[in-house]
Amino acid sequence: MAAAPEHRWLWRVLGSWLGVLVHIWARTWRVHWIDAPPRERAVYAFWHGQQMALVAARRRTPLTTLVSLSRDGELQASVMRRLGLRVVRGSSTSGGARGLRGMVRAVRAGSDAAFAVDGPRGPAYRAKPGALVVGELGRARVVPLASAARHAWVLQGTWDRFEVPLPFTTVTIAVGAPRSFAPTSEGALELACAIQRERARAVEACQATTRSRPPGR
User: Measuring CA to CA, which residue among 203, 190, 105 is closest to residue 163?
Assistant: First the structure.
């Protein structure tokens, strides 16, 4: 459900303030990267529940993301803009074709793209092919991406088990190898497996960091 025009400004103001909070929150994290992001244009694909750690990480290149046309999307779009991302509105369930065309244009113009590939409403950990379509039409390869935090709140009541890394914790971001996936259901399944592999690498690295810390620290 889209936000009513008379309420849209309220969601935008709230989202802007929330974006400032997320930015300050994320600056307290110790971020470790497993492999560096590619220098070429890329379509980054990750799970919806891990997006806070990923979109708040500092970047050197423009990044465009797809946000739904719903009322929640109005809030999220304002947060993303405050964090320095470019936003295209649309989703797999509403305004999808228009949203994907906007993402393709952004990638062709030189921006990277970011997709929570099981969003906006799930099912969790089941990739949709939208990112693969943008990669093929935008002539950019897809990069599986995942994160893990040493300490995080996990919102158990949400469909995606949304993760909020705690202040001053260590966040590990695992970057997969850029590659091309067929924009089909089989390609989406391959992408899901690739994201899960990066998630396993991120979790393992976080656990190793925890084991290496002296007791009491």
Answer: 203
